Amino acid sequence: MAYARRLDRDQAMDIVQEAFLRLWRAWEAGETILSPRAWLLRVARNLAEDTAKSAFHRNGTSPVDWLYGIAGRSPMPVQQLERAETLAQIRQLLADLPTDDRDILTLRYALDYDTNQIAELLGIQVTAVHMRLSRARKRLADRLAEQGVTSLP
Prior knowledge:
- The structure is a single chain.
- The chain has two domains: 2-67, no CATH class; 77-147, Arc Repressor Mutant, subunit A (Orthogonal Bundle), CATH 1.10.10.
- Helix 2 (9-28) crosses helix 3, helix 6 (99-110) crosses helix 8 (126-147) and helix 7 (115-122) packs across helix 8.
- The protein has eight helices and no strands.
- It has helices at residues 2-6, 9-28, 36-53, 55-59, 77-96, 99-110, 115-122, 126-147.
- The chain is rod-shaped and about 100 Å long.
- One of its GO terms (biological process) is DNA-templated transcription initiation.
- Residues 88-140 form the RNA polymerase sigma factor 70 region 4 type domain.
- This is RNA polymerase sigma factor 70 region 4 type 2 domain-containing protein.
- Keywords: DNA-binding, Sigma factor, Transcription, Transcription regulation.
């Protein structure tokens, strides 16, 4: 009967097992069942109909491979590690740069000051800030290239 309702051998077996489990639990609870065969058929029929109505059995599930196409918001662990290593190299190379270069790069990129704020703080012209930043970035880029760093995080 379960197979006739669902036309799926595995689902029919699940329904039959569940029906027998419920019969066993009913007997354990002390229920009196006068006709176990009729009781099992009624429970199996109800389970088959419930299974047919279930959204899980109607729609099924997507294979796990489908989830691989969903991009996460955070970078992959390998990318995080590469970024951390590159930033450590940059910090090391910054420490080796002349003080003027290190100070102007720190003000601009670590503290996020704009060129007007840097010019006011250092008491120089804005055009001088642009020139110093350009030269400091060039020296840092050359040292990074020597270390084999081709792209920044």
